[in-house]
Structures are given as C-alpha cells and as structure tokens.
Specification:
CATH superfamily: RutC-like
Shape: globular
InterPro entries: RidA (IPR006056), RidA_CS (IPR019897), RutC-like_sf (IPR035959), YjgF/YER057c/UK114 (IPR006175)
GO molecular function: 2-iminobutanoate/2-iminopropanoate deaminase
Number of helices: 2
Organism: Prosthecobacter vanneervenii
Oligomer: single chain
Strand order of the largest sheet: 1-2-3-8-6-7
Largest sheet: 6 strands, mixed
Strand content: 25-35%
Keywords: Hydrolase
Order of helices and strands: EEEEEHEHEE
Family: Belongs to the RutC family.
Amino acid sequence: MELINNTPNVPAAVGPYSQAVKQGGLLFCSGQIPIDPAAGKIVATDVEGQAVQVLANIRALLEAQGLGMSSVIKATVFLQSMADFPKVNPLYEAAFGGHKPARSTVAVAGLPLGALVEIEVIAALA
C-alpha cells in the first residue's frame, strides 16, 4: 500500500487521512471538498462554483498520478441538499466528458468546513 500526500495543486488533507491510497491496481482518492489550493480555503459560495473546484481538485490528484478522469471507475457524490443535484450533475458530466463511471449520489446532513458538495473517486491504475 502506498499513501499519497502533499500532491501539488491539491488541497492538503484537513484531517488525519491521506489524499489517496494506491492498493491492488487501484487509486482510492479521499473525498475532495471545494478548497481552492491557492487560497487554502473554500472560495466559492454557490454549489456550482464549489462543484467546479471539487472536480478540478480531483483532476489534479489524478493527473499527479499520471491518470485522467477516464481512469475513474467509481465516484460518490455527497450533497448537502439533493435539490442541488440538477445543478451539479451537468458540471460532473462535463468534467468526465463521455466517460461514465459507476456513481452514487447521497444527501448528507453536513460536510467539512460547511461545503455544499464533496466527491470521492476510485480510479484504475492500469
């Protein structure tokens, strides 16, 4: 098992966990919240802006491992409100292009730092 931490252009973990873990041909990426890595905090206040930042963080994490969005085999989207689903879904679709990994979307009572959206992914290394 290889722990991935301190990836360039990806926010540092806000708790005692790794940004990602490589194991058995897979990359398990911890959930990304909309922290702007340059600012070190959440900048966007609307769910669309936050979703764009989350997806950019995921892309940067994957690219640092030589992967792209097409390597993702499973995604889990956490929304503070399921009413935001129709706002986030087209941004998610655009970020993945024609690639459609398996996905779950769930509404949660709250997310770290008051985020409106968080996304975690599992990617294939090969």
